[in-house]
From TrEMBL:
<dbReference type="GO" id="GO:0160102">
    <property type="term" value="F:tRNA (guanine(10)-N2)-methyltransferase activity"/>
</dbReference>
<protein>
    <recommendedName>
        <fullName>tRNA (guanine(10)-N(2))-methyltransferase TRMT11</fullName>
        <ecNumber>2.1.1.214</ecNumber>
    </recommendedName>
</protein>
<comment type="function">
    <text>Catalytic subunit of the TRMT11-TRM112 methyltransferase complex, that specifically mediates the S-adenosyl-L-methionine-dependent N(2)-methylation of guanosine nucleotide at position 10 (m2G10) in tRNAs. This is one of the major tRNA (guanine-N(2))-methyltransferases.</text>
</comment>
<dbReference type="InterPro" id="IPR059073">
    <property type="entry name" value="TRMT11_N"/>
</dbReference>
<keyword id="KW-0949">S-adenosyl-L-methionine</keyword>
<dbReference type="GO" id="GO:0032259">
    <property type="term" value="P:methylation"/>
</dbReference>
<dbReference type="GO" id="GO:0005737">
    <property type="term" value="C:cytoplasm"/>
</dbReference>
<dbReference type="GO" id="GO:0043527">
    <property type="term" value="C:tRNA methyltransferase complex"/>
</dbReference>
<keyword id="KW-0963">Cytoplasm</keyword>
<feature type="domain" description="tRNA (guanine(10)-N(2))-methyltransferase TRMT11 N-terminal">
    <location>
        <begin position="10"/>
        <end position="181"/>
    </location>
</feature>
<dbReference type="Pfam" id="PF01170">
    <property type="entry name" value="UPF0020"/>
</dbReference>
<keyword id="KW-0820">tRNA-binding</keyword>
<dbReference type="InterPro" id="IPR016691">
    <property type="entry name" value="TRMT11"/>
</dbReference>
<comment type="subunit">
    <text>Part of the heterodimeric TRMT11-TRM112 methyltransferase complex; this complex forms an active tRNA methyltransferase, where TRMT112 acts as an activator of the catalytic subunit TRMT11.</text>
</comment>
<keyword id="KW-0694">RNA-binding</keyword>
<keyword id="KW-0808">Transferase</keyword>
<dbReference type="GO" id="GO:0008033">
    <property type="term" value="P:tRNA processing"/>
</dbReference>
């Protein structure tokens, strides 16, 4: 006899109003990591800060909030409506037996009010709290350290220039847990010991780790590791991390510093020092100087996630090892005794190699998360690189300018890699649309030049 599925409970999620496209894939990935799933019946309006989710247990809701940087708080939803009357009717219909454990006479509580897109006076807040006197509260009010916290949340719409007199949605619920928004500040690149020109913003780093469903004891790899910013977020979640990069100076923490008013990097500026700064050194495996176009890993070496930000020619040029026959201009000096010959590494080739590597070296169910630069006037979904062993999970846009953006691509390994899959992308001309990525740098700076020229023309008027 099959066991009945656990009854779903309704929760209200309060989200931050940034990186809007990234929020749904993050929440969906984290729910699946906690053993749940996101279904089409969830009441989610993508741009709204309020989402109603059906989650099997409070434990799963807490697990979600231990990871998310896109959500602020989660509440057990007791009632909601489009007017105060609807909210009160909804609360009166909520099962009393589910309320009573939190309203006992020997307990303490407080009620907090949150409004979106409107500010209320203290008198208005007190009036709204007093209107809930029909609820069977038996405990004592404790504003400083209550056992239970209840929230009234009011939504006044998304338009700050047209704020309605009354809220368009009202919610009441029991606070369960807060998200991990404090990580954005505590891991800020501004405070980091070792940074480079392309160090990833802390919030996006944690979003990438969450999209990749990184979990404790995973092995996470970044093939374009740079200063290791993406390793830090994965290590914070308990994964063992490693990376490679073609730049000898960066891996060894040598050469010119990226910080203003600092000429050269110090003797202890390196990736390991970054992990040590956050108490994460025990999760650091190593970082190697290597050319990603020539994989160094033995067969059977498998990663749970590959999370990376490939260079796309704006602040860092894509490079790979060249031959001694190539022009002497490509010879670069890294240290007194270290030279290498570099040649151009087309963006289309980077993504081709990246997907092929992910298909071969990810565990089944492992995820590849990477940034893809886009020239927006020419963008279609057909230019997203594909591989038969990898399933596209999400595709989120971050604007760089009016004409360019980068898209965070998340893919999951769903099929074992076979030798015949190695060049499968080249079949039937499927590879040709990706060639457009090769001119991204020219298109990016062409747009910048045009914008500057337009601004200068406007200033002359």
């Amino acid at each position: 006899m099959a066991l009945a599925a656990p009854a779903l409970r309704r929760y209200l999620l309060l989200l931050a109003q940034e990186h809007l496209e990234f929020r749904l894939p993050e929440i969906t990935s984290l729910l699946s990591l906690c053993g749940g799933q996101f279904n089409g019946e969830q009441e989610v309006h993508v741009n709204s800060p309020f989402w109603i989710l059906n989650i099997p247990s409070e434990e799963m809701a807490r697990g979600l909030m231990k990871r998310t940087v896109c959500a602020k708080s989660i509440f057990e939803l007791w009632g909601h409506g489009r007017s105060a009357g609807e909210l009160y009717a909804s609360l009166k219909n909520y099962p009393t037996d589910k309320m009573l454990p939190y309203l006992q006479s020997d307990s303490t509580y407080k009620v907090h009010i949150h409004t979106f897109n409107k500010t209320l006076t203290q008198a208005q807040k007190i009036k709204k709290i007093d209107a809930l006197e029909f609820l069977p509260f038996k405990g004592k009010v404790n504003l400083k350290n209550p056992e239970h916290i209840f929230w009234i949340l009011e939504d006044y719409g998304m338009n700050p220039n047209d704020v309605p007199e009354e809220p368009i949605h009202l919610y009441f619920g029991r606070w369960i847990a807060d998200g991990q928004r404090e990580l954005i500040e505590s891991y800020s690149v501004k405070k980091r010991h070792f940074i480079g020109n392309t160090s990833m913003d802390a919030c996006l780093s944690f979003i990438m780790a969450n999209h990749g469903r990184v979990k404790p004891n995973d092995i996470v790899y970044d093939p374009f590791v740079g200063t290791g910013g993406l390793l830090i977020s994965s290590a914070h979640f308990g994964a063992y991390v490693c990376g490679t990069d073609i730049d000898y100076n960066t891996i060894h923490g040598l050469g010119k510093a990226s910080r203003k008013n600092q000429k050269w990097r110090g003797p202890d500026e390196n990736i390991r020092a970054n992990l040590r700064q956050y108490g994460l050194e025990k999760y650091y495996l190593d970082a190697l100087v290597a050319d990603f176009s020539r994989p160094i890993w033995r067969k059977g070496m498998l990663f749970d996630a590959i999370i990376t930000d490939p260079p796309y020619g704006i602040r860092e040029a894509p490079r790979r090892m060249g031959s001694q026959k190539e022009t002497v201009k490509s010879v670069e000096r890294s240290t007194e005794n270290h030279f290498f010959v570099s040649s151009s590494y087309h963006l289309s080739d980077i993504f081709f190699d990246l997907l092929k590597f992910g298909a071969e070296y990810l565990v089944m169910g492992g995820r590849l998360v990477y940034w893809l630069p886009i020239y927006r006037p020419e963008y279609t979904e057909e230019i997203i690189p594909r591989h038969p062993c990898l399933k596209l999970i999400s595709n989120c846009e971050q604007l760089l300018s009016s004409h360019t953006s980068r898209r965070l691509i998340t893919m999951e390994k769903v099929k074992e890699f076979k030798d015949q899959d190695e060049n499968s992308e080249l079949l039937d001309g499927q590879y040709m649309p990706y060639r457009g990525h090769n001119s991204f740098r020219e298109k990016y700076f062409s747009g910048v030049t045009k914008r500057i020229a337009k601004e200068e023309k406007d200033n002359q008027k």
